[in-house]
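Methods — Computational structure assignment.
A single polypeptide chain was analysed. Its primary sequence is given first, followed by the predicted tertiary structure written as structure tokens.
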Amino acid sequence: MFAVFRSLHMKLMLILLLLITSLMAVVGAFLTTSVSSFYIDTFYEQISAVFSDDSDGYVSTLRARAAEPDGAAGIKEMLEGRAGSLGIDYRTRNYFILDGQSGTYLDGSAEASELPREQTANLLTARNAVAQGDSTLVGDRSDITADYMDAAIPIMGGGNAYIIYILDNKDTVTDLNSQLFLIIMQALVIGLLISVLLSFLLSKTMVGPIEKLTAGAERVAAGDFDSQLPVESTDEIGILTGTFNEMADVLQATLAAVENERNKLDTLFLHMTDGVVAFDHDSLLIHCNPAATNMLHRSVPEGTTYDTLFGQVYPFQETLALQRPNYAEAEMEVGDRTLELFLAPFSDQASGGVLVVLHDVTEQHRNEERRKEFVANVSHELRTPLTNVRSYAETLRDAEGDIPVETSNSFLDIIITETDRMTHIVQDLLTLSRLDAGNAELVLSRFPFGDAIESVTRANALAAKQHGHTLTYTPPESLPLIVGDRSRLEQVMMNVIGNAVKYTPDGGHITITAGSTEAEVWMEVCDDGIGIPEKDRDRIFDRFYRVDKARSRESGGTGLGLSIAREIVQRHHGTIALAPHEGPGTTIRLTLPIGGPSNPI
């Protein structure tokens, strides 16, 4: 079934059917709207011709008759005289004479039951005119969507006030539109039949040459380039057929040329993600890709020799003498990069040469060094508390009750403290591991940035008071809502403010400020504590790095807090860094995007 709808025959037929249907729908809508608009315009033109222009004194006479005791009867007599001008046919269009104050039915060409159940906008306008005593205010606004047309004209004379209300139920328009719809549907059916016939004729004319082109393309895909398609016309299909024949000839020649270069190209681009440099049998440059140029930190112009680039790393002749698939390995330093080289001959023939693949292993070496340093730091951080635990535990065991209870409890407190410290280290390591592996998903929500700061400030208030610090946070006039993981960001704030409390000598001052721009919010924590030496400023976010190791261990720090904070902030696409600070102490600035991370990991 779907194959039928994918055929060109069916597509052409559907296009023509849709075209005819759309055209008839537009024409029908236009005619229906035009008929309705014309009928409405005619209605209000008739009303305006009778009541707006008082050149013949008709309106003045109506007002005079309204002043009479039986004004409704006089007005009805005059309306009957102008029934033709008003289009009153007593079937679809009638007039009604209403009381000007209450709007109740007094007389008319039809019964009161023909009036609308609810008073229309035009009738309300006329009643307002009577209430205001303004006889020029006429209710004659049209509404093409309503199922009726109406006009209300206030007539005031003497102490009497009446409303002439003319109502047309649009039955004439409805009948005319129904007839138009039947005509349009008949034309649509005829148009659809014609479009089906035309679509088959057009498709037959077009599909034949295209099917021949398809057959020719299948032969070319199978490797047959000798068959030429006959050009049977000079139109676009004929031009396409001629172009196809030329393409087959060019493709055949190109494939022949590519086949001759296959062996060299297969080896040349084997490691295209890395740098690739090729030399001919005379050690002259054949090819150097952009990656190799970038790794070598230099331009490699045509005519460069092997000895210029790699002569000191591995001799050219020894590489050329290697038998495939053997290859040589070497390393070279280029600036601050370490490159691993793979050298191999790309052909055993005299026309061969040497291929050098460059692989940047700088980051691998750095990662290895970081891994060794990390293992050493973890071992050191765990060995110290383990040594203390073992020492005090052995002391308690060997004493066999000879140690006073207070001393014994003190030893146990130390063991518990050191155990908690190891637990914190392990927990921080697990958190970093999850962040590195991308397993710590962010729970994003929209929350007030200022509330988070105030919450963390209150949480640190007791610790600051115990140290005699003055902890100050003056909220700005307004801080926006931001998108982020509130618990994680509060963890970052807690770490930064907690560090300020711990590493500021007793009686210090800690000031928290915050603000926002159009796209970001920021928080700064400023203290007048011990500060950070210039030589340590670039490393404070490294894992296990501490400026004052003795004070850090004394306060229970693991050296991982700022590393975790930086990982969390970076996952929010924000920044955390040291800010310029005058005098003793430190200022750390946290900046976050208001809209949250655009693509959270």
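Note: DSSP finds 18 helices and 16 strands in the chain.
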